[in-house]
Amino acid sequence: MKEFFHKLWFRDPNESTLYINDTAVRIRAGFLIFIPAFMGLTLFYVAYTTHWVVDGNTAVDTYETDWDEHIIYSVEAIKRTYEYSVQTALLFYALFEMLAGMTVLTSRLSPTILLSSFLARNAPPVWKPLVPKRYAWTLGSSLVITCIIFFNPDTFAEILNTLLRHEVLPTDHNYMPKWIPTTLVLVCLGFMWMETVLGFCAGCKIHALLVWMGILKEECEACNNIDWDEIARKKLRKL
């Protein structure tokens, strides 16, 4: 058990190039997938099932008509408001989980890493480099932060306006279109489903592509044999 807590999902925490057990990573993704699923249901409910409710008993004739000679009535209309403290708390937890897996020290603070490592302890390990996973979790963190801003637009606007000492964003309405978090939640849900079910890490593939293009120079499982000096020489020859 002592060795388990020392290694967790790492092949060797003391290695210069860290490798983690992809089996545990997939189990962990299976736990975390419930967060974007819940956010997706919340956004769907808010965007498509919330309507104005008009009380016909409060209708009062204004004795006026519109351009089409329709009688104009004054009515009492209500619409449900939402409080997103639960969603915000879950999103901050998801952000913590995205960041916790990036280092050996913070990994020991993650409940999902502890649980997934324990569940994967008897399965044959599949070692993958940590660097591409860090890039994938960075992308995930950006998606989570965007959703946090959507659920708390006034708080973010007040903080930003205070820092910049200028009213950059309004505080009386949500300035972020609903399609942005809805799309990002679906993307996040799709990525995590592929990670869990197919073992396909979309963020890792994007990282590998950026390494192949020369934009990133971090070690990547799919790009370990890149000769950066040769790439530089080819660029110079083209010039």
Q: Give me the secondary-structure category.
A: mainly alpha
What is the terminal-to-terminal distance? 58 Å
Question: Unreliable segments (pLDDT under 50, ≥5 consecutive)?
Answer: none
Indicate the proportion of strand residues.
Answer: 5-15%
Helix coverage percent: 55-70%
Count of DSSP H/I helices? 11
The total domain count is 1
* DSSP summary, beta strand count: 4
Spatial arrangement of strands, main beta sheet: 1-4
Order of helices and strands: HEHHEEHHHEHHHHH
CA-based gyration radius: 25 Å
Describe this structure in words.
This protein is mainly alpha-helical and 239 residues long. The protein has one domain. Helices cover 58% and strands 11% of the residues. The chain contains eleven helices and four strands, in the order H-E-H-H-E-E-H-H-H-E-H-H-H-H-H. The strands form two sheets. Strands 1-4 form a two-stranded antiparallel ribbon. Strands 2-3 form a two-stranded antiparallel ribbon. A hairpin with a 5-residue loop joins strand 2 and strand 3. Helix 3 packs antiparallel against helix 4, helix 3 packs antiparallel against helix 9 and helix 7 runs antiparallel to helix 9. The chain is elongated, with a radius of gyration of 25 Å.
